[in-house]
Amino acid sequence: MTSRRTPDAQTQVTFSGDERILDNGAKLQLIKCKPRLNHLLRSRCRIAFVVISILAMLVVVRSGISASRGYALVATQNQTLQLEQENERLKVEIAKLKSPIRIKQIAQDELGMDVPNKMYFSHEY
């Protein structure tokens, strides 16, 4: 229990739990109020939290999509490089197969053809 003198009146006030007792014996009942919640502020904070959460999720999803597209691009570039190398190899093989010396060799060895000694051309149409 604590005591205190009020400055405006020479009355002594005694505090006891939830009651105040004055010198003259009158009891004052203290009413405890619930703290008022600012519902508007609370709802605005909720809305801000939801908006920020949605934006964060969009950023994460977008970066995931960008990463997967990057991987697909790298795979396509690797495939392009392999196809270009295969194309060059095939061009070299075609050049070897078109070689006149190779064709002459096949004609003589496998087909039994021979180059004639004399050639005659006719100009008939």
Properties at a glance:
125 residues; alpha+beta; four-stranded antiparallel sheet; rod-shaped
Rounded to the nearest angstrom, the radius of gyration is: 51 Å
Count all strands and give the number.
4
| Terminal-residue CA separation | 138 Å
Share of helix among residues? Answer: 55-70%
Order of helices and strands: EEEEHH
Number of helices: 2
Structural shape: rod-shaped
Task: Estimate what percentage of residues fall within beta strands.
Answer: 5-15%
Main sheet makeup? 4 strands, antiparallel
Could you state the oligomeric state of the chains shown? single chain
pLDDT < 50 stretches: none
Average pLDDT for all residues = 82
Task: Provide the structure class.
Answer: alpha+beta
Strand order, main sheet: write it out: 1-2-3-4
Overview of this protein structure:
It contains 2 helices and 4 strands, in the order ββββαα. It has a domain at about 40-115. The relative contact order is 0.04. The model has no long low-confidence stretch (mean pLDDT about 80). The chain has about 120 residues and is α+β, with helices and mostly antiparallel strands. The chain has helices at about 40-95, 100-110, and strands at about 1-5, 10-15, 20, 25-30. It is about 55% helix and about 15% strand.
